[in-house]
Design brief:
The protein is an all-alpha fold. Helices cover about 85% and strands about 0% of the residues. It is built from seven helices and no strands.
């Protein structure tokens, strides 16, 4: 028992000497990585805690080894700080996003206006195209179900839906252009 106690005391003295002789060096290395003195002091203390945890092993006395251990510890601290900042920014960004259920009044008005443009353009389509789009998008029937309902071939239904969508897009674009084109003229006439 006495022999183990003496070894522990001698290891403690050796580590204390090691700490006293190399602390300033480790602190300088930490300051090169970490700009704030408080952070550098914390990192230097953590380096010595890591070295002290190497139980039974005598710490290396070479400065290049100590510099490498210290540098890697500081790099790890910087990575952790960067990850924390990124996580905080992501959390703040997510908190600032509006909830999908609570849209603003302006978004409700714009959505209603877009829906009205779609309905108006849909009303102006030929009857056959209008039926295909209503069955596919509003009633959510598959192409096969539409073909069975209307008594048509499946390729004819697919082609008809494709052409109807293209016509609908063209009508909506024309409505949007005419609405955008009328607004500047009205403003110009008012001046």
């Amino acid at each position: 028992m006495g022999d183990a106690r003496q070894r522990a005391q001698s290891c403690g003295r050796q580590f204390s000497e090691f700490y006293n002789t190399h602390y300033r060096y480790v602190l300088r290395v930490c300051q090169r990585f970490l700009w704030r003195r408080e952070d550098a002091e914390d990192a230097a203390s953590e380096v010595f805690l890591k070295l002290h945890s190497l139980e039974g092993e005598e710490p290396m006395h070479s400065l290049p080894w100590l510099s490498k251990v210290t540098g890697r510890h500081c790099i790890d601290r910087l990575r952790q700080a960067k990850a924390e900042r990124r996580r905080r920014v992501e959390e703040e960004h997510c908190e600032s996003l509006p909830d999908a259920l609570t849209n603003s009044p302006l978004s409700h008005v714009l959505l209603r206006e877009r829906c009205e443009w779609v309905r108006e353009a849909l009303r102006r389509l030929p009857r056959e195209s209008r039926i295909l789009l209503v069955l596919h998008y509003y009633r959510q029937l598959s192409y096969a179900e539409i073909a069975a309902t209307l008594g048509k071939q499946l390729p004819a239904v697919k082609t008809g839906v494709f052409r109807a969508k293209r016509m609908l897009r063209a009508r909506i674009a024309a409505t949007a252009q005419s609405a955008a084109g009328e607004a500047p003229r009205e403003n110009f006439e008012a001046v």
